[in-house]
Amino acid sequence: MYNALRYSHQLLAETIERFPAGHYIDATLGNGHDTAFILTRPNFAGTISAFDIQSEALESTRDLLRQKNLVDHPGLTLYKASHARIADTLTDIPVFHGAIYNLGYLPGGDHSVTTLAESTLTSLAQVRSKLVVKGRIILVIYYGHPGGLEEKNAILAELATWPQEQFQVLQYGFINQRNNPPLLVAVERLRDR
């Protein structure tokens, strides 16, 4: 069985196969692994907008992309901004084909700087408003830190209200593992209104 992170990449790869020239959001850039994953898909010919509030995350990502000869990829734009600013920042991009979130704190960084329920819910609403039919929002929720459980519960409560006629929402995770194993939530738009 796949863990949450590996399954998130399988779902992301499927989405890129579906929309190779699409626009993707890495809403929580972190150390850049999701962005690098997207850029290295064999048929990827689209664009990525990647967001993080920490300079350390952007530098770590640039280092990773340099190692992979991807730092100057023409389809990539990095933003030092909260994922709650997607709508303000990407006004010229009419639709999104996929978005990925890794919620929690920056691995190897300051554990007191975490994603928060309020900004994540704001971000999800912004991505939802431009998500194409068959597009996906993929969230890997790490919640074993202060405030993490509140963020997880707020996200699950919100996504439970999204109409099933328009969205499929999948929850995937191990239930017999210690120490709050990450939870995967995947959303696919079925149709517009």
Automatic annotation (TrEMBL):
Per UniProt, the keywords (alphabetical) are: Methyltransferase, Transferase
Q: Which GO terms describe its biological process?
A: methylation
Asked whether the keyword Methyltransferase is assigned, the reply is: yes
- Superkingdom in the source lineage: Bacteria
The GO terms describing molecular function are: methyltransferase activity
Spell out the Gene3D superfamilies in the cross-references: Vaccinia Virus protein VP39
Show the PANTHER family listed in the entry.
Answer: S-ADENOSYL-L-METHIONINE-DEPENDENT METHYLTRANSFERASES SUPERFAMILY PROTEIN, TRNA (MNM(5)S(2)U34)-METHYLTRANSFERASE, CHLOROPLASTIC
In Swiss-Prot or TrEMBL terms, this protein is called: 16S rRNA (Cytosine(1402)-N(4))-methyltransferase
User: Which organism is this protein's natural source?
Assistant: Suicoccus acidiformans
